[in-house]
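Training component of the fellowship. As part of building independent skills, the fellow (R.M.) carried out the full modelling exercise for a liganded target. The chosen ligand was glutamic acid. The inputs are recorded below so that the supervisory panel can assess the work.
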Amino acid sequence: MNKIITILTILLVASSFAFAAGESEGANARKYVTIGTGGVTGVYYPVGGAISRILNQQSDAYNVKATVESTGGSVFNINTVLNGGLEFGIAQSDRQYQAINGMAEWEEAGSQEGLRSVFSLHAESVTLVASSASGINGISDLAGKRVNLGNVGSGQLQNARDLLEVFSITESDLQPEFVRAADAPSLLQDGRIDAFFYTVGHPSGTITEATTGRVPVSIVSIAGSEVSGLIAEKPYYSTSTIPASYYPNAENTADANTIGVLATLITRESLDDDIVYALTKEVMENLDDFRALHPALALLTPESMLGGLSAPLHAGALRYYDEIGLEVPAALR
Ligand code: GLU
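Fellow's submitted model of the complex:
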């Protein structure tokens, strides 16, 4: 009997020891985080890649590994981060504003209170690309044309709608398409659309692709009193310029004037503070390397990276900013 009890005790101790080891291994297990971006020929995708590369240099120190996913864009990223399908996402500053204030796609659902910002990234311009044969020289020429406004889930769809509205053009005045920006250059080159909208940083592979085919193509300026009115009305729009030098094969030789927003990195309130802290710290402390990873990032500074945010900062990001004494706008705390 005693022998049996001894054996049972040994088994019990051994199994609880194994359990404890398993537990502690679980706590230290590497955590995988995914960053939602956009089309592979956009700028979110390489910028997401740059963030994950910087963080992954310290994977062992933090026990975190980041990967990047190509997605339908800002609105998809915000919704998927909130429902737990992604840990981080890149989203336009106007879409972040709308999500936190329960506007646009979130009008019915109301304020997305779990949304958190981490930092802002590069400037994005609302870019209108048109075939020269279409005769489109501005927004007012879009009536009657076949125009890709953007896929559901993208950032640009609402930018296109805002612009049409201030020029009093309704969607029934044109033949709207709702495909991903990555598919628009070939549709334009095949003559199946006359123009497309894409809110994107520059230079972007999508715009290079659109302007280097057989069909001559221009980047069209978006200007006029309607546009100044829109900038005055919406807090997130500002003037923006697309340098002609980025797209030497486009027909326009002058820079295109338009409106722009900022790209921002978002997450959700429930994500582990230590993970958000690690990502924020690594990007900020390796800013020179980060800026060198894409031309659109070249001008970033820690101060500029706190601009254009409307969702409160995630506690992990805030911990880092407070640690280095960065001035954080009160509304973001
Ligand atoms: N601004 C676009 C969007 O939110 C994505 C641009 C990009 O992928 O660089 O859908």
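The panel noted the following from the submitted structure. DSSP finds twelve helices and ten strands in the chain. Residues 142 and 231 are 20 Å apart (CA to CA).
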